[in-house]
Amino acid sequence: MLDEIKKMINDDNEVLNILPQNNVNNRKKYRSQLTSIKNKYVDKQRELLGYIISKNNLLRKKYDIPHEDSLKKQMRAFEEKTDYFNPYQDAYEILGLDKLFYGLHKYYDNDLNIYNNNINKILDIFDQVGLSLTKDDFYFSDSIKEYMGVLISERKNGNYNSPIIKETFDNLFWQNHNMMRYILLNFKHLYYTNEKKFAEFILKAKRVILSESENNFDVLLQKYQDLVVKSNDSYLTNRGVFFSKFISKELSTNDYDKEKIDKLINEYLENSTIKNNKDIFEKLYASINEEMFINRKKFLLD
Q1: Contact indicator for 154, 162 with CB cutoff of 8 Å
Q2: What's the Cα-to-Cα distance from 287 to each of 167, 264, 291, rounded to whole Å?
Q3: Contact at 8 Å (CB) between 160 and 116?
Q4: Separation in Å, CA 222 to CA 88, 207, 225, 226
Q5: Nearest-angstrom CA–CA distance, 202 and 228
Q6: Can you give the pTM of this predicted structure?
Q7: pLDDT per residue as tens, the chain (302 positions)
Q8: Of the candidates 119, 112, 118, the residue with the CA atom closest to the CA atom of residue 149
Q9: 173 contacts 144 by C-beta, under 8 angstroms
Q10: What is each CA distance from 37 to 6, 12, 18, 48, 136, in whole angstroms?
Q11: Hey, is 199 helix, strand or coil?
């Protein structure tokens, strides 16, 4: 089909090139021919678009493209569980409050929606620990008590970025320019006041996690390792994964030209067979993933 379109373009260019434009009548004929050609390509564009959509649907059905890789999702869940066993971090870091508080500290770099999103995540963590905060917990100033009261109320209705919250913020911020700083200090005070309860929550969470793995941390790691192996096999053998990456342009077909691949293989793997190549690259892929995990979770091995 591509060759057909190239031929059409060349033929039409030749027609246009030989048409004279030396007088009004000839220019009129030229514009008429140009309009005709344009309409032809508009029709061809519709035809091509229909073909591409049809072909894409057929390939998606054939390869059964997953919307989300369930193995990767399970791996992320296991990695989050291992974070609870980091001996170099306390609840403040394990639950991510350090990053969220930093986001509140950098309020001047973010818009109000992002700021409120951070507050919502912090409130979720306090809820998770068993501390449901109310406006009365925010007593560093009257302005933050009023603002957090409105935000918490609107949050219960499922919208912590509602117009009324923005209106409240606009009214209060001009009265107290330190309002956002006080909110951060108030949250930190609440954390350190309840630090023991946060520590108890982490201990309880660790017991629950271990109970799902025969109360043995090595069993937990073995489950994760099994998932990694399954994920590697799925990634390397599932055509749908690669098809999806090509469609999203995460991968480029230009990088998978046969000549380029053969050149790389000959450069790094001399005198090897196709089967050996496959085995070597699968082991390399698995080793890289393992090394990345070790670097992220080095605290488990220390």
Answers
A1: yes
A2: 54, 19, 6
A3: yes
A4: 22, 18, 5, 6
A5: 26
A6: 0.62
A7: 778 888 888 888 888 888 888 888 888 888 898 899 999 989 988 988 898 888 877 777 776 655 446 777 888 888 888 888 888 889 999 999 999 999 888 766 668 888 999 999 999 999 999 999 999 999 999 999 999 999 999 998 888 888 999 999 999 988 888 899 999 999 999 999 999 999 999 999 999 999 988 888 888 888 887 887 777 777 777 777 777 778 778 888 888 888 887 777 777 776 655 556 667 776 776 777 777 766 766 655 55
A8: 119
A9: no
A10: 14, 7, 15, 16, 73
A11: helix
Residue 58 tokens, joined: 């057929």
118 CB burial (10 A radius; 0-12, 13-18, 19+): buried
In a 10 Å sphere around its CB, with 0-12 CB exposed, 13-18 middle and 19+ buried, how is residue 122 labelled?
Answer: buried
- Name which of 290, 288, 264, 289 is nearest 277 in CA terms: 264
Query: 241-256 in b/e burial notation, b at 16+ Cβ within 10 A?
Result: bbbbeeeeeeeeeeee
